[in-house]
Amino acid sequence: MRDVWNLPAIAPWEKSCVKHPTQKPLALLTRIILASTQKNAWILDPFTGSSTTGIAANLINRKFLGIDREEEFMTISKNRKLEIENPQIFGTYKKKLGGFDDKNQLEMFLASEPTVTYDRKLIIE
Ligand SMILES: C[S@@+](CC[C@H](N)C(=O)[O-])C[C@H]1O[C@@H](n2cnc3c(N)ncnc32)[C@H](O)[C@@H]1O
Known about the structure:
Number of strands: 2
CATH architecture: 3-Layer(aba) Sandwich
CATH superfamily: Vaccinia Virus protein VP39
Number of helices: 5
Distance between the termini: 44 Å
Mean pLDDT: 93
CATH class: Alpha Beta
Helix content: 40-55%
Strand content: 5-15%
Radius of gyration: 15 Å
Bound molecules: S-adenosylmethionine
Number of domains: 1
Strand order of the largest sheet: 1-2
Order of helices and strands: HEHEHHH
Structural class: mainly alpha
Low-confidence stretches: none
């Protein structure tokens, strides 16, 4: 991991469900999530916008909860989520994720990482 990250900007396919005004590149969120979570982790983005965090999370085997005050942005988020529920699109987008040295680097990393386990429950009565 270097101090300065060189990552691709948002590609046209990342705007397939209409671009959010401050949408971030999937490559950036993928790098952040991989650096800070494990497989199967829950990720919360309370300012989710078009849910780039969520799309990146789902593409790399994490669960996601997003919140936004703008219904318009929740619609973009829902459409992006629906898009990757198509296994063919899911696979294509995963292969297109930038920021890796070669095509197999991400797959090899995902195959070797540990799974997070949740052993605490919060019960409010
Ligand atoms: C910088 S954008 C997030 C962009 C997102 N990372 C993406 O890639 O699409 C911040 C979002 O926070 C939302 N927001 C701002 N204040 C909020 C609040 N108080 N509660 C919920 N959402 C809020 C805005 O509507 C906006 O969509």
